[in-house]
Automatic annotation (TrEMBL):
<dbReference type="InterPro" id="IPR017900">
    <property type="entry name" value="4Fe4S_Fe_S_CS"/>
</dbReference>
<keyword id="KW-0813">Transport</keyword>
<dbReference type="InterPro" id="IPR050157">
    <property type="entry name" value="PSI_iron-sulfur_center"/>
</dbReference>
<dbReference type="InterPro" id="IPR017896">
    <property type="entry name" value="4Fe4S_Fe-S-bd"/>
</dbReference>
<keyword id="KW-0677">Repeat</keyword>
<feature type="domain" description="4Fe-4S ferredoxin-type">
    <location>
        <begin position="1"/>
        <end position="29"/>
    </location>
</feature>
<keyword id="KW-0411">Iron-sulfur</keyword>
<dbReference type="GO" id="GO:0005737">
    <property type="term" value="C:cytoplasm"/>
</dbReference>
<dbReference type="InterPro" id="IPR047927">
    <property type="entry name" value="YfhL-like"/>
</dbReference>
<protein>
    <submittedName>
        <fullName>Ferredoxin</fullName>
    </submittedName>
</protein>
<dbReference type="GO" id="GO:0046872">
    <property type="term" value="F:metal ion binding"/>
</dbReference>
<dbReference type="GO" id="GO:0051539">
    <property type="term" value="F:4 iron, 4 sulfur cluster binding"/>
</dbReference>
<keyword id="KW-0479">Metal-binding</keyword>
<feature type="domain" description="4Fe-4S ferredoxin-type">
    <location>
        <begin position="31"/>
        <end position="64"/>
    </location>
</feature>
<dbReference type="Pfam" id="PF00037">
    <property type="entry name" value="Fer4"/>
</dbReference>
<keyword id="KW-0004">4Fe-4S</keyword>
<keyword id="KW-0249">Electron transport</keyword>
Amino acid sequence: MALFITDECINCDVCEPECPNEAISPGEVIYLIDPKLCTECVGHYDTPQCKEVCPVDCILVDPEHEETQEQLMTKYEGLMAQG
């Protein structure tokens, strides 16, 4: 599953540089996660790095983008192939 950032985000800027897939970007009000790029760090780390550094725990699993570990790994492999 991809992750998403709730409106509890305080725009602290710590999550964006931690994302190995560059899936996190500033939105108009809060940071956003692109579900096409988010692999929950599968292929890079054991745990989602954005969740590890978030001081307010506002990054959750996105129920609208459910994916298995296998699907996340396939997405990761596709992203790596694109360069």
